[in-house]
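Incident review: delayed structure delivery

Summary: a single-chain prediction request sat in the queue longer than the usual turnaround. Root cause was a stuck worker, restarted by the on-call engineer. No data loss occurred. The affected request and its eventual output are reproduced below so the record is complete for anyone auditing the incident later.

Affected input:
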Amino acid sequence: MSAPGRLCLFGEHQDYLGLPVVPMAISLRVAIEGTRRTDRIVRVDLPDVSSFLEFSLDGPLRYEGTADYLRGAVNVLRREGYTFSTGFDCSVRGGIPIRAGTSSSSAMVVAWVFFLARMSEEARALPPAEAARLAHAAEVVEFGGAGGLMDQCAAAYGGAAAVSFHPALSVEQLDAPAGAFVLGDSREPKDTQAVLSRVRSRVLDVARRLAERHPGFSLREAPFEDHGRYAAELARGELDLLGATLMNRDITRVAIDRFRAGRLDDRTLGAMLDEQQILLREVLAISTPKIDRLLDSALRAGALGGKINGSGGGGCMFAYAPGSAPAVAEAIERAGGTAHVVRAGEGVRIEAACG
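Output delivered after worker restart:
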């Protein structure tokens, strides 16, 4: 089994607010290989992080930390009615930058739940919606995480998609941009859950207070043009945060409409990525000086636009570079990053027959 990492083209820090996002799966993947055992032991080799995991399927699985996603997925699937008569010997390998904002963990968990469902006594092939739901339950809900469903949907469905959450989850496949992107890993460590929690708590606190004072207020419906009316009720930083959230929402909605109409040309896409980056850097404060330097270098080398990727606070940026990807990759490397030229990728898939 394998599943892709992702770029967030539009809507960073929006999915956990119930606002639309546009992720794009990329050509870097995590792969899981496994064979059945004759006992009920599960052994997982994780050479990319120099780790090894072993546990028994007898009895309940107890977690070792707040990111024990592989055991978490087993517990989630068991509660959903999946049964396992034997254990497995597995290996997990990937080419996605780790802990860098490109959803390496979500790709792993989506591939893992897909693998587990196939290896269970029920031997089910999960449709993308079910793979995304189970992976989100195992990675986020099970451990009280702060993330939304964007990452799991990207890894499960593949390509580019408009993911909406109201009134219910819907995933609309879009035509992915044809040109190459260059992913730049800053190699700066990041704490995804800490950044997500900080931004999420601030936005939700503002939205809650406004809804209490103004019945009917919602982040989905409030016009950006009207956010200034709350200036007397919010501190300046809170007002700016509200405005950035609503503008980010509107940029994402415009992008989705242009995708649907076939009117998101390369230069428009680049300009809209740059517009988002201003919000993420200046208001949400999730960019870093090194990320900014990598982006500036990419633009000078011919990229049409770019932004930080993922929750921020380090990790990766990406630049859209149709026709100039090699030069942009070289510029990012010279500026101190690790560059990967990527294109749109497929969703979770079977790479070889499972045991």
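Verification: Residues 158 and 346 are 4 Å apart (CA to CA).
Action items: add queue-age alerting; document worker restart procedure.
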